[in-house]
Amino acid sequence: MPPSSYSFELESNPRLRFEDNGEGWVTCYLDQGDSLKKLGAESVSYLVDNISSALNRPLRSIVIEGAKMYFPFDTPEDQKKMTGEIDGQPVYWVCSLAEDHHSFYIDIDSTILYVEDDEGRLAERLTLDDACIDAWNEQLRKLSQ
Prior knowledge:
The model has no long low-confidence stretch (mean pLDDT 79). The chain has one domain. Helix content is 23%, strand content 45%. The protein has helices spanning 44-55, 76-81, 130-144, and strands at residues 8-10, 15-22, 25-31, 36-43, 60-64, 67-71, 82-86, 89-96, 103-107, 112-116, 122-127. Helix 1 packs antiparallel against helix 3. It is globular and about 50 Å long. The chain has a five-stranded antiparallel beta sheet with strand order 7-8-9-10-11. A four-stranded antiparallel beta sheet has the order 1-2-3-4. Strands 5-6 form a two-stranded antiparallel sheet. The chain is an alpha+beta fold.
């Protein structure tokens, strides 16, 4: 049974906070401890599906003869989602938020979540270690039940 309230946090440094604003929508904030920045809002199902998919995508980088290569792409749709580079790292789109229009991108190894503002400027980067990814997956799994 899904929770009656969709307020939750995804632990990282800084953390992402999601607060229920009614009818299955949540507002997303970047919580830096001493400040809270609104990033936008979206439906719970959209966020759970897109973030879970990004965290669990089997895209990994390997080095062959000194060159970094990226394999595999799951589907042609995944190839279309590759959006370029941030900080010199290949990234793909995770999701975009309504209202304040921030977007999330993740690196090919699923270890850095980039947050861009409504003008495409890098607003934050969140480093995701294995423990963080496991905790996010558990939290998102609970929300999808």
